[in-house]
Design goal:
The complex is a heterodimer of chains A (about 280) and B (about 300).
Chain A lengths: L8 H24 L22 H9 L2 H32 L5 H10 L5 H14 L6 H5 L6 H12 L3 H9 L4 H12 L1 H17 L2 H6 L8 H13 L6 H33 L3
Helix pairs in contact in A: 2-13, 3-7, 3-10, 8-9, 10-13, 12-13
Chain B lengths: L1 H9 L3 H42 L1 E2 L8 E2 L3 H7 L2 H32 L4 H11 L6 H12 L5 H8 L14 H25 L4 H9 L4 H29 L3 H6 L11 H11 L3 H33 L1
Antiparallel strand pairs in B: 1-2
Helix pairs in contact in B: 2-13, 3-13, 4-8, 4-10, 5-8, 6-8, 8-10, 10-13, 12-13
The chains are: A mainly alpha (about 280), B mainly alpha (about 300).
Amino acid sequence: MFNSQKVSATRLTIAIIVTLFMLFPLYWLLITSFKPAEELKSAIPTFWPKHFTFQNYVDAFNKAPFLRYGMNTLIQTVGVVTLQVNIALLAAYAFAKGNFFGRDKLFLAVIAAMVVPEQVVFVPVYVMMANVGWLNTFWALIVPNAVSAYGIFLLRQAFKSINNDVIEAAKVDGAHRLHILYRILTPMALPTLVTVLIFKIIGSWNSYFWPLVMTNTDNMRVLTVGIAMLKSSIAGNEMLNFQLIMAGSVLVAAPIVILFIFTQKHILTAMSNSTFK
Amino acid sequence: MSSEIKLTKHVPTKKRSLLNIKRRESTKDFLFALPALLLLAIFTYYPLVNSVFISFTDWNLIRPIKKFIGLTNYQNLLVDPEFYHVLKVTFLYTIIEVSLELLLGLGLAVLFNVTARSFGVMRSILFMPHYISMVVVSMVFVWIYNTDYGILNTVLKLFGASPVSWLNDPSTALWAVIIVAVWKGVGFTSLIFISGLRGIPIEYYEAASIDGAGKWKQFLKITLPLLSPTTLFLVITSFISSMQVFQSVNIMTNGGPLKATKVMVYWIYDLTFVQFKAGKGSALVIIFFFIIVLLTAIQFAISKKKVHYEG
């Protein structure tokens, strides 16, 4: 495992061809966003723009309030992830180290919630949001998604593996339980916390169904919904404007790709540790 | 903590004070779990029960009064040919998507299961689309599939074939949507397969090659059987997530052409927010949820069994 294997040239060649083939759609996305409109219609496709341009990004910003969309996505993501992580830390501590009536049954109820897809609960939640006047506000985007059962599950596992002596020692020193949780347990469970953080950031940034249902004004639209709206508004016209849609799509995907590149090692380790255990 | 210590000084018997402390401690523990429990109760469990109730009513989502009509929504669904069409499309989509993703994922796993650094980089590239928004991915493929200027048809024309309206032709649209999901998910699937492959002891292969078994025979007799827990895990988790397909259909085809890609969640959305038949939509939600629960139960039973014979 530790020293690299010798790889045959054939295997390497096949692997590279497969990788390039799989990478092509993303390359095509990026490269189209830098092409002028006329170049999209040329009979022979250009694999590098003949006239490299940033104009599509400017046009996309003029066609739709992308700055607003981006801010909305950012606020939603920060809100959801902050709440999810803190609520999960508290609950994970209670379920791992606490002792109260019905603890394990209640934990089961938390886990069971993972089975319920958002498409099953969205109508009653929509009505609830309408009744309290939260439709088209960040409340509707953030509060119903504030709990991550998956996050509670992972963090509880991590806390359970920490020896009770650590907690007892802190208690003897007179440490408050919030102090124990945030200053002692959380640093010890940091790899798990980072995993939860990464997955939740990606999930919230990419969410589509929930914001589509809960908002309907241009001011409250998030990036994913904004792009979809841009496509349907352009599709009405005769003009082919894929360069604009691709520019907008790059804006949605770029932060996640960057996050992925910087955290992929962590993601891979987390995945191989958590799939079957 | 300090207040509790003070308190013990005033209470006469030691036993009682310990009990008090315990009760206080457990209340505090419970308070830590309370935010999560309350939010789940309000935003998951109550809506679940409420969905069942709405499915028994004739309701247009806006009107304050919900007329109770019993099982009528379910009866109407069961005699509606569209219901069976949607079920068929959803299961066709799911079965084909999961089969392709697993077959290709296994192939990629075998090809990329090399510890060389360059292969690690390539694995990451294959895996990356899993984390990119389905909205973005759908947009890219709408452009690739474009009838007049899409790169796919341009390549076909080079080989002398006539262009195809991939997303506007009922015979190709479902396949076109499936391919997108396979492209997005296959890297993830192959990584799970690779971690399964690495769990197989190398001694088995050594013993087999001493006995003269070729590579192909080793694959059939050692790799596939020992990989079956991984495969089962992937079949069921992919099945559950494929059943929930919505974004790609909503963006690429809107359920068309001629309902060729009309899957369950798309119909749920359409019934509720476009046709305003929230009662009928909720009945469909409940049926959909039952299928998901059933699949999860099967997964649970299988993973329990697996643990059983391993231990």
